[in-house]
Specification:
CATH architecture of the largest domain: Up-down Bundle
Largest sheet: none
CATH topology of the largest domain: Growth Hormone, Chain: A
CATH class of the largest domain: Mainly Alpha
Oligomer: single chain
Low-confidence stretches: none
Helix content: over 70%
CATH superfamily of the largest domain: MFS general substrate transporter like domains
Strand content: under 5%
Length: 323
């Protein structure tokens, strides 16, 4: 796998940089190094804070679990506070780097503040927050379930070879097919409609894992569930990438898409980190019902975002005609 990764590295080193791109850099190399140094300081501060608070958080979990009589809720609450505190430390360190001159304020504003401001200017505050909520939560259902899927297959008695053939080989093919179908549907029916349908299908396929749980070690049911799950995942991914691409402003395409794609997995992966605790608390059937239920509000978000975008487009059209 490392050798395969080297292909891209070697290709990047061999290809020369176009001269027209060199003139687009408006800051000196040491200023970019300062930005990288500030980012490194923030990350180190976050990691150190998270590590040093381990013993204190363990003691707090014991006390809170006794007070609430709920170990899972206590653990989740303390870890959430621990994460928030570490993030605050990282932000404080970032502000310190800015105040001492490690980072160029103008470059920071152009690189990070301007793309965010432009997004809110393009869509308005209300629509922008609604779109961000949809971006951050759209994949929460399948990501939370996906973390536990391979372990679930092993607990049912499937071997690693069975899982590799079903998920990594056959499932990959179904994901690719789903990607093609998603792209075709987006062109024919529009992005928002396919987003709604795929979000609904994700809820349905999550419920199919309950059937696999009661079927036990049944290869045919495994392939049926994996087929449906990966096919829907491919459709949803294609539609969602098209949706994200339609939101970016041409002036800040790279930065805005980077923010959207990062936000897309941030909240789901934070919650997915507690998937094991959820399974231990309510079992696999309850866990699959939970992952399906958290996907239902996404349907409402898609509808609200579509209506808000329509209203925003009408307002922009009216303003352009008036001008």
């Amino acid at each position: 796998m490392a050798l395969f990764g080297l292909v891209g590295v070697v290709a990047t080193l061999l290809i020369s940089e176009p001269l027209k791109r060199a003139s687009q850099f408006s800051h000196a190399a040491n200023e970019y190094l300062g930005l990288l140094l500030a980012f490194f300081v923030c990350v180190v501060g976050f990691v150190v804070c998270f590590y040093l608070s381990r013993d204190l958080s363990d003691q707090a979990k014991v006390l809170l679990s006794e007070a609430l009589n709920n170990k899972a809720l206590a653990g989740f609450s303390i870890e959430l506070l621990r994460l928030g505190f570490a993030l605050c430390i990282a932000v404080m360190l970032g502000k310190l780097c800015i105040s001492v001159g490690v980072v160029n304020r103008q470059m920071l504003a152009h690189s990070y503040v301007s793309p965010v401001k432009q997004f809110f200017d393009d869509y308005g505050v209300k629509t922008a927050w609604l779109l961000l909520a949809l971006i951050g939560l759209y994949r929460i259902s399948d990501i939370v379930l996906g973390v536990m899927s391979n372990l679930f297959y092993q607990d049912l008695g499937f071997t690693k070879v069975d899982i590799a053939n079903a998920v990594k080989f056959f499932g990959l093919a179904m994901t690719i097919i789903g990607g093609f179908l998603g792209g075709i549907w987006v062109m024919r029916h529009g992005v928002m409609r396919v987003l709604f349908i795929s979000a609904l299908l994700v809820v349905v396929t999550n419920m199919m894992f309950i059937a696999l749980y009661f079927a036990g070690k049944n290869v045919f049911v495994l392939y049926a569930v994996v087929s449906a799950d990966n096919l829907v995942a491919g459709i949803a991914t294609a539609a969602f990438v098209a949706f994200l691409s339609s939101l970016v402003n041409v002036q800040f395409t790279a930065m805005q898409y980077a923010i959207f794609s990062s936000l897309m997995t941030l909240i789901p992966k934070v919650l997915a980190g507690y998937s094991g605790s959820i399974v231990e608390s309510i079992g696999y059937p309850g866990f699959f019902i939970f992952t399906g239920l958290i996907g239902l509000p996404i349907l409402l978000l898609v509808v609200l975002a579509q209506r808000s975008l329509i209203v925003h487009e009408r307002e922009v059209s009216q303003e352009s005609k008036a001008s």
